[in-house]
């Protein structure tokens, strides 16, 4: 029986429980809001910037926040994926230091700098060295449950930041948005889960289209930009396969021009356009024209529309489909979606030095 039609075989091949974590994502989002609401934070005068510092699965929550907050916060949100914080970080900066393991060296370095610069810090982690340092420094720590892959903890590593910003008086109460997101994902999982056959499971159909091709994921400035990046990362880490992402309207000014050569490679690309009902009207026109220009050049183009009404639900509805598709793609390649040996090797070798 082909693997995508055999739910039990997929559960057996998934040694780290990525499918279980996906099933539990709706409840994770609800719990994440509660964790943020319970954090030991107080309002801050003269806030000038918010910085989220983290890597990989711990950084994407920063991008979700950046995109979410861009039309809602009066200050910019900057995501730092590096050892070094931007020069502007200082006493009027709120820094979220995020590391699921608590042991990622770039994040530890950035945390130490944030302390030296006198920034206000909130840590999100399961523990590790970051939890220990923050505990010793009296820095507020939001301790999130362990036992899953960092990239499966996107609710825990993002939604508490919304609650913290609400508690600091910088965002409105978003509990209704979190509730909508939770119930939307609860209904979506019934259609995306392994037991649902391929011809009625959108994530399985996507995985089949990605198989032996290179996925190219396009979003637009606004909610879907970060989701495109998320899909790419999930395909890389779960399916151990390449994928690329870009964003409208910028890609209309460069990437699209590059869809002429080499023809035999272009025909191995499968393009996904992630859409949101609130995309800028001119960008919506660009989707159709772009599709026309490139349709015959690549293996296929599909458009996927976000669901839900609130921004959070709309973003997570697309994240959820991509997360499931990346795990199904791992199954098609015969790899275990959970382990990320390359990252582990790199971290271990760097730790030896
Ligand atoms: O998904 C993963 O496993 C990685 O992208 C990690 O998130 C990344 O290596 C950073 O580790 P951590 O999230 O523990 O800080």
UniProtKB/TrEMBL annotation:
What are the GO MF terms of this UniProt record? glucose-6-phosphate isomerase activity; mannose-6-phosphate isomerase activity
Q: Which UniProt keywords apply?
A: Isomerase
**A Pfam entry, by short name:** SIS
Against InterPro entries, the record matches this protein to: Glu6P/Mann6P_isomerase_C, SIS_dom, SIS_dom_sf, SIS_PGI/PMI_1
Query: Which PROSITE patterns does the protein's record reference?
Result: SIS
What highest taxon heads this organism's lineage? Bacteria
- Report the EC number(s), separated by commas if there are several: 5.3.1.8, 5.3.1.9
Q: Which residues form the SIS domain?
A: 39-175
Isomerase recorded as keyword:
yes
Q: Which family does it belong to?
A: Belongs to the PGI/PMI family.
Q: What is this protein called?
A: Glucose/mannose-6-phosphate isomerase
- Species the sequence originates in: Desulfofundulus luciae
């Amino acid at each position: 029986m082909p693997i995508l039609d055999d739910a039990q075989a997929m559960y057996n091949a998934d040694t780290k429980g990525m499918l279980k974590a996906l099933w539990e994502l709706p409840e994770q989002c609800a719990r994440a809001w509660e964790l943020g609401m319970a954090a030991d934070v107080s309002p801050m005068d003269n806030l000038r910037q918010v910085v989220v510092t983290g890597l990989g699965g711990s950084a994407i929550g920063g991008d979700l926040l950046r995109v979410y907050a861009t039309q809602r916060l009066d200050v910019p949100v900057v995501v730092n994926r590096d050892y070094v914080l931007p020069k502007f970080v200082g006493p009027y900066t709120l820094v979220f230091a995020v590391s699921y393991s608590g042991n990622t060296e770039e994040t530890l370095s950035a945390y130490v700098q944030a302390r030296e610069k006198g920034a206000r810090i909130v840590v999100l982690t399961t523990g590790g060295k970051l939890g220990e340092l923050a505990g010793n420094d009296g820095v507020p720590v939001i301790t999130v449950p362990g036992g899953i892959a960092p990239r499966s903890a996107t609710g825990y590593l993002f939604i508490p930041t919304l609650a913290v910003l609400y508690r600091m008086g910088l965002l409105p109460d978003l509990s209704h948005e979190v509730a909508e997101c939770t119930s939307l994902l609860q209904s979506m999982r019934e259609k995306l889960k392994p037991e649902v056959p391929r011809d009625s499971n959108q994530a399985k159909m996507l995985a089949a289209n990605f198989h032996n091709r290179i996925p190219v994921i396009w979003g637009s400035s606004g909610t879907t930009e970060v989701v495109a990046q998320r899909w790419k990362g999930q395909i890389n880490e779960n399916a151990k396969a390449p994928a690329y992402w870009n964003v409208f309207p910028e890609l209309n000014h460069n990437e699209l021009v590059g869809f002429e050569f080499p023809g035999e490679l272009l025909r191995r690309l499968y393009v996904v356009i992630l859409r949101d009902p609130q995309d800028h009207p001119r960008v919506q026109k660009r989707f159709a024209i772009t599709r026309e220009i490139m349709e015959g050049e690549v293996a296929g183009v599909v458009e996927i529309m976000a669901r839900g009404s609130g921004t959070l639900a709309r973003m997570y509805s697309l994240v959820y489909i991509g997360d499931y598709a990346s795990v199904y793609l791992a199954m098609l390649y015969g790899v275990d979606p959970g382990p990320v040996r390359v990252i582990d090797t790199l971290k271990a070798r760097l730790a030896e030095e």
